[in-house]
Design goal:
8 strands; Rossmann fold; binds S-adenosylmethionine; 276 residues; globular; eight-stranded mixed sheet; alpha/beta
């Protein structure tokens, strides 16, 4: 019998791979098990660039949060599908750029939530709630959300590498619209999403591995479908681009073939409040 480490919340079956722990393995974390590693390796067999893509996604998240806190004046973040904490978590990046920034993390996964609680212990400016993106009203009404976020001031809604885990039947566009309609004027939406345009066959094969080995549904989407998540928002420069292309730290950080990092990413803003 495999011993479960003490940090594993009760009731977790570590014999079954899960989305948060597969991603943790790609990022080099140690909150994952044999089943997660096997699933991650099966995907690497199809896409040798998988780890680099996961890291490019995480790096985009850091750059977007830094931009929002340091340049766009955002002081509050709602991060849904936040994952297992690793380095450069949203509250850490935001608070370096703008001390006092507040973050509500949301994830459906027990391990991600348990670890976020450990990391956030004692932090008055950040909290984690366990909830499903498919129930946005519950996320918005949660007492932690209501306590930490001021819905009269702009908020950044982060949906980073999570919307592709929603099936079409979940009506992801409607979910994003429900969240958008709750956001104050001038708020931002940050999205990254697996895009099928460059290599539809590969993305379809990866979906099958997720379905069979990770029990995850959802799908990669076309750039036209991903663009629709920004309905009501104005995409800020440079628009919807491959992950390494979004405001790179150095021009050299953009690889020669950025479409090989087939995550499309973008940041949009709701119209700001009129000034008169
Ligand atoms: C690939 S990780 C992304 C983590 C982080 N946003 C990042 O980009 O670094 C996806 C996360 O979304 C969570 N997730 C998947 N489906 C979800 C849902 N329906 N509701 C809430 N969280 C979900 C998973 O548990 C996982 O932690």
């Amino acid at each position: 019998m495999t011993m479960q480490p003490g940090w594993v919340p009760p009731g977790i079956d570590i014999g079954k791979a899960n989305v948060a722990r597969v991603y943790d393995w790609w990022l080099g974390g140690d909150h994952n098990f044999r089943a997660d590693q096997d699933a991650a390796r099966a995907m690497i067999a199809l896409e040798p660039n998988a780890r680099a893509i996961a890291r490019a996604n995480r790096a985009f998240l850091g750059r977007a949060v830094r931009f929002l806190a340091a340049e766009a004046g955002i002081r509050q973040f709602l991060d849904i599908g936040s994952g297992i904490p690793t380095q450069d978590n949203v509250h850490q990046v935001a608070q370096v750029a703008a001390p006092g920034s507040r973050v509500v993390y949301v994830d459906a996964d027990d391990v991600a939530v348990a670890h976020s609680k450990l990391i956030l212990d004692g932090s008055a400016a950040a909290a984690v709630i366990q909830a499903d993106l498919r129930d946005p009203a519950r996320i918005l009404a949660d007492p932690e959300t209501q306590l930490l976020l001021d819905f009269t001031e702009p908020i950044a809604l982060l949906l980073v590498a999570v919307l592709h885990f929603l099936a079409d039947a979940d009506q992801p566009e409607q979910i994003v619209a429900t969240l958008r309609d709750a956001l104050p004027a001038g708020s931002y939406l940050v999205v990254s999403h697996a895009c099928s345009d460059p290599r539809p066959d590969l993305l379809s094969a990866l979906e099958t591995v997720y379905k069979n080995k990770v029990s995850a549904r959802g799908r990669a989407r076309t750039s036209a479908e991903i663009t629709r998540f920004f309905d009501g928002f104005t995409l800020i420069d440079p628009g919807l681009v491959w992950a390494p292309q979004w405001r790179p730290g150095q021009p050299d950080d953009v690889p020669e073939h950025p479409e090989q990092y087939w995550f499309l990413v973008g940041v949009g803003q709701l119209p700001p409040r009129s000034q008169h």
